[in-house]
Amino acid sequence: MASNCMRFFFFNLYLTPMKTKNTILFLFLLFPVAFLFSQEQEEQKKDNFYWGVKAGFNYGSFGAKDIYSGQKSGLEESDVYASIFAEYKLNKEFSLQTELGYSATAELLYWEFPVLLKYTFEEKFQVGLGPKISYISNNYFYGGVELITRWGISLQGTAQYNISKHWLLETSYTYGLNKQLNDYTLGFENGKWRAFRLGFGYKF
User: Fold this and answer.
1) What is the count of structural domains for the chain?
2) Which end of the chain is more exposed for a tag (fewer CB within 10 A), N or C?
């Protein structure tokens, strides 16, 4: 069947005027080139996108004001964090990373969603900066009054070292922009979240 179709194609091509014949031949030869190019583009898209998981140590604090003296006060805590992330390369140097993370302290549970613009230099090193939205998922009351502002916005800076094709080491710092915690049992209010992190990640 295939051989009959090929004979039919070339027989009709022989009877076709030269100008039209050249056009048909060009398109016929162009098809496999276009197909290979599209396959290459698909491979490049796969190479430009990856996702993975991260986990590590979280040291956080609430920079606040003492309700009695007006001096600087706050709360410091350390715990763990974990996240799933996706990264897309915009070009050789820049990439865009989104992440869904979970962070816990002794009293508060955070869901976090940062969006970072990252810059790659010397292949293995990356730095990034961008906004982060966070949500406190647990309740925190004192005398029937809720002490937290559930939604928070902050800036996050990160540095990453790619140990291998799959493994990475990262550190990051989060600077809270809005007031999220009042703790009258500890005597402070208007606490803004700060966090330093150190952890590992795995890229699939």
Assistant:
1) 2
2) N
How many other CB atoms are found less than 10 A from the CB of residue 176? 22
- Say how many C-beta atoms besides its own lie within 10 A of residue 24's C-beta: 14
Distance CA 190, CA 63 (A): 8
Taking a C-beta distance cutoff of 8 angstroms, is the pair 158, 127 a contact?
A: yes
Same domain, 152 and 64: yes
pLDDT band at 83 (very low <50, low <70, confident <90, very high): very high
pTM, two decimal places: 0.70
**What's the pLDDT band for 21 if we cut at 50, 70, 90?**
very low
The CA distance from 147 to 138, in Å, is: 11
Q: State which residues form the domain around 25.
A: 2-46
- 75 and 25: one domain? no
Same domain, 182 and 193: yes
Between CA 70 and CA 188 the distance in angstroms is 9
Statement: residue 12 has pLDDT above 90? no
Asked whether residue 60 falls in the same domain as residue 37, the answer is no
Same domain for 172 and 95: yes
User: Is residue 160 pLDDT above 60, yes or no?
Assistant: yes
- Those residues with Cβ within 8 angstroms of residue 22's Cβ, 6 or more apart along the chain or in another chain: none
- Does 112 lie in the same domain as 40? no
- Mean pLDDT computed over every residue of the chain: 77
Q: Which of 30, 46, 62 is the last residue of a domain?
A: 46
